[in-house]
Amino acid sequence: EQEIFWLVEEMVLLISTYIQSERSSCAIYFSASTLTQRWKSNKSHISNVFPPSLSTGAGGWSPLTSDQYQWLEVDLGERTKLTAVATQGRYGSSDWLTSYLLMFSDTGHNWQQYRQEDSIGAFPGNSNADSVVQYKLQQPVIARFLRLFPLDWNPIGRIGLRLEAYGCPHTSDVVSLDGSSSLVYRLSPGLRRTSKEVVSLNLKTLRNSGTLLHAEGWGGLSLSLELERGKLLLLLRQGGTSSSEPRRLASLGSLLDDQHWHRVVLERQSAHLNLTVDKHTETVQIPAEFIQSLDSENPVISTRDFHGCLENLLYNDLNLIEQAKRNDHQVTVMGNVTFSCAEPVTIAVTFPGPQSFLQVPGPTVSTLGGLSVGFQFRTWNKVGLLLTFDLLQQGGVAWLNSFPSPGSALNDGQWHSVDLNSRYGRFTITVDKKEGGVSSPSFPVTVGRQLFFGGKNNSENCSNPFDIFQGCMRLLTVDNQPVDLIMVQQRLLGNYSHLQIDMCGITDRCSPSHCEHGGRCSQSWTVFHCNCSDSAVYEQSCEAYKHNGNTSGHYYIDVDGSGPIKPQLVYCNMTEENTWMVIQHNNSELTRVRPSPGVNQHLLYFDYSSEEEHLLAVISQSEHCEQELSYHCRKSQGSPFSWWLGGPGPGHLQTYWGGAQPDSQQCACGLQGDCVDPQHYCNCDADRTEWTEDSGLLTHMGSLPVRSLVLGDIQRPGSEATYRVGPLRCHGDKNLWNAAFFDKETSYLHFPTFHGELSADITFLFKTTSSSGVFLENLGIKDFIRIELSSSTQVVFSFDVGNGPLEVHVESSVPLNDNRWHRVRAERNVKEALLQLDELPAATQEAPADGHFHLQLNSQLFIGGTASRQKGFRGCIRSLQLNGVTLDLEERAKITPGVRPGCPGHCSSYGSLCLNQGHCVERASGFHCDCGLSAYAGVFCHTEVSASFKSDTSVSYTFKEPYEFIRNSSALPSSIYSDTTLRGENVSLSFRTNQSPALLLYVSSHYREYLALLINEYDKLEVRYKLDNNREAEVLTSSTRSLANGQLHTVAIQRVTNSVSVQVTHTHCSIYTVSVDTVDSTHLSVYQNSDDLDPDLAKLASLGFIGCLSAVHFNSINPLKAALLHPDTSPIIIAGPLVQSSCGSSASANPYTAENTHHLSGTSEDLNTFSISLILGKVK
């Protein structure tokens, strides 16, 4: 066997020779749609009753052969707007269609298939010969020719049909442009532009590029609608030349060079512009400078280098083509313009599947030694067999195959040309007019008499080693002569199988993209794929991030989930009890206003880091928002010379200031009655020569955010002013905690019908003690959607969009009726259905490849139950969102029997987030962690409380008598005080030092029993216990070395009677036994008098401690936390400098590390380094 191949652009030509064996040849010939001799045209009309004289006739259309290659074509005589079709079987027979396809054309060529819902090609037919089945077209079609293709028919009969089409004549004005011609429209002199402008048209072209519309303004600004690679781009240019780099505002449509009519509408409302192409619309914001620059002397609308036809070109209902026909002075015709649509006839052929091939005669006898083949193709597939032919003398075969290569893409859906030439033993391939490569086989090449495009008849002996071709071809030539594909279709030339001739059936499944969350869409001929590697699913608020266990930092907030608003980066401050979302703008600093000559007022704009829709959604779903507004003045009055604008859009005029109420025309001091001049309601209005200010928080959410600030009265001699507009701060999430409790199986909430025709994205949380129940249900005539708990371990998502019921289910390994919150996410789109439960892997179910898309519902949406009042859900449902919209369960529950608003018991699910002995406390909306008993602080009791010690720093904590701390129980944290009878200790702390030896902690009683924790001179940890006055102190030494190395170490000591365990960082716990008497002291303190210490401890204590101590815990006492956070209300004595720092952070010494950590470390290793203890610095 001998093979030669090479790669050129994305083409592979493989020539293979083989020993020819005996071949079997076969041919299948199909008849065209020939009518029976009995057929009569008047009998093709639908009728319920036929006259007796016609009852013996054929009674409709029936071809001689009933197979998949038949069709019925109707010439309507003129372009007609078709709205419905109806079919009936052949009269008095068993002949009827059960399904069929419809195609339309303006010219009788270049047919276009009508698809329901952009997917389904087949129409339902009849079930008998007499009944009429009418189908109303969802989108009316304008065409002159109609073709009906039978798909299936009565199996005991033949193809039989009576057909009627419904519609009305279509009139239009058409203009044909040749690429150098154009129309230019100018506004009448003196005519003012309106705030709303609409340009609409239909276009038809074979070219994939050209400027469709162009509008000019002052200063070289221009807005153009350009066709590029079959898409429409809305471009803004500045500079007056087409070579200037444009700014893309929108991109819409695809495959617009298919020589079919496409609808285009541009609608401007002020600065908002809607671009619609066919059925899809994109909204963009036009820069204000362009709106202001439009000049009535310049062209408003013009066409440039567009080659094709335009129909019904309207500007604000003014027909510009009609005006051009009348030679109206406002419309100028430039170049060769004709008022009809010149449509070149180009026959394409579609290869839809693996059995598709086209066989045409090869080179003539005079050119058998050579070959010249040309064609164009378009496809989405990366590889595919384009051309096959036999090698006669060598007994072999040659394959021309498309192949992917870096930097080149022939699977982009565009038309690409291929020319293959063989002369004098040389093969040459040219792709898109660029010669790709030349091969010289080592044997003479003689091409066979048949060429196979797109595949090869399977009866041939040599199998195809390549993937089949799926796509379109056109402009086929052999020996520089065009191949007549209509003759092929009529079986007068060559052969074919499973082709669609005289049409290109390519579909762009990525326009518009169905991929969500920034996923990139790619496609093959039959399916599309979403690349989600760069996409992410974000939480909808800082509150949601907090309840996932995250800490302060920057996060992307997707405020409407799967809705249209894009995620935005904000700062989440979780250091307080409330979780604040902070949205910055371009200037939140205190800024001095400097007078400018000739300027009486200063206008200041604030641009926020979030887009407009995101800002308004954040304010709407937050429980509280605020923004600081401060005005510092010296001889500069505020009212009436200054004001601000706030609220949606550009904002509304506001005359009140920070700390006051809307419409009060006051400042905070006026509301409180303490202005510097009682005659005024603002301090600055007093016009004092000394500095004063009016500052406060704006909290009226309808007035937020602050958009702009106007400051006046700063031009007078001696006038000065500064201002500050702080960032927008919001806390709370009304959506996250919006919940309802269903206490009966027959109870439910109902809402309006859910509109999730193409995409349904549903998320919610539930908790229950029941083993089953329906969460959600919405019904249609046949369609439905339902989510339910089918058992204590299974959630099921089921629906029907016309293809039959489909189910997706997820099984949990643990019971779901545990009265804890569980999250459900169900999604259904045109590609698949998905169901995810908590953090379990998502289950998916693919949608049928050629099935229904639209979910058609018409009943009310039922939550927590069903319309039949059976299988209802008992429990709580929270944070229910449908396609990014939160349903207000609480408001509806207030007026619904059997349902209660809200749902308590969050600590059962979120209590584990409270770390280090933090206590979970229920709130009406959510929970919070009480860190009073913890040595840690922070929203989850996770923040180390650390301090840096100098050699003369000491902290002593004196235990109070029982009657004392009972008497002072109203003081700050009661957890500071504890039972002081020492029958055992639970001590822990973290430290970081380079000092050796060093005393870390010392606890003693009145009876001179003590506990000392120190680093000895060998850098080891020592624990000294003296619990019996009659014995010497016992020394427990850890085996861990090098503790004075500047690294963070954690010590945990636990004593129960005479058994002591000591653990250092991650080392194994050491167990010791000590001698002990009963210790019962109510006054234990960190002694200040070194005379009471053992001599060796006194010497060590006199050195003091230099380093860091953190998270000190002694039984239930947190002395370091008390000293740092509550020094005035705790029995604490501090000597020397005590500086709070982040030195106890195990990650690093960076004080901001904790804020930038976005995930809690709740692993077993972290629990092993848990630190709680008592601290002593220098003992004096």
Can you describe what's shown?
This protein has 1180 residues and is mainly beta. It has 7 domains: 122 residues, Jelly Rolls; 161 residues, Sandwich (Jelly Rolls); 154 residues, Jelly Rolls (Sandwich), CATH 2.60.120.200; 40 residues, no CATH class; 136 residues, Jelly Rolls (Sandwich); 129 residues, Jelly Rolls; 177 residues, Sandwich (Jelly Rolls). The protein contains 13 helices and 79 strands. The strands form 14 sheets. Strands 9, 11, 16, 17, 18, 20, 21 and 23 form an 8-stranded antiparallel sheet that branches. A hairpin with a 2-residue loop joins strand 20 and strand 21. It is globular and about 120 Å long. The protein starts with a strand and ends in a 12-residue tail after the last helix. The N terminus is likely disordered.
Please render the helix and strand layout as text.
Blueprint: E1 2-8, E2 11-17, E3 72-88, E4 97-105, E5 112-113, E6 123-124, E7 133-153, E8 162-169, E9 174-178, E10 182-185, E11 196-204, E12 209-216, E13 221-228, E14 231-238, E15 247-252, E16 262-269, E17 272-277, E18 280-285, H1 288-293, E19 301-304, E20 307-315, E21 318-319, H2 320-325, E22 331-334, E23 337-338, E24 348-351, E25 357-361, E26 371-378, E27 384-391, E28 396-402, E29 416-423, E30 426-431, E31 434-439, E32 447-453, E33 471-478, E34 481-482, H3 485-489, E35 495-497, E36 500-501, E37 520-523, E38 528-531, H4 542-546, E39 553-557, E40 568-573, E41 580-583, E42 591-593, E43 602-605, H5 612-621, E44 624-634, E45 643-646, E46 652-654, H6 668-672, E47 692-698, E48 706-711, E49 720-725, E50 728-731, E51 739-742, E52 749-751, E53 760-767, E54 773-779, E55 784-791, E56 794-800, E57 806-811, E58 822-828, E59 832-837, E60 843-846, E61 861-863, E62 875-882, E63 885-886, H7 889-893, E64 899-901, H8 907-910, E65 919-923, E66 926-930, E67 946-949, E68 954-957, H9 962-967, E69 984-992, E70 998-1004, E71 1010-1015, ...
Antiparallel strand pairs: 1-2, 2-28, 3-7, 3-8, 4-5, 4-6, 4-7, 9-20, 9-23, 10-19, 10-22, 11-16, 11-20, 12-13, 12-19, 13-14, 14-15, 16-17, 17-18, 20-21, 24-33, 24-36, 25-32, 25-35, 26-29, 26-33, 27-28, 27-32, 29-30, 30-31, 33-34, 37-38, 39-40, 40-41, 41-50, 42-49, 43-48, 44-47, 44-49, 44-50, ...
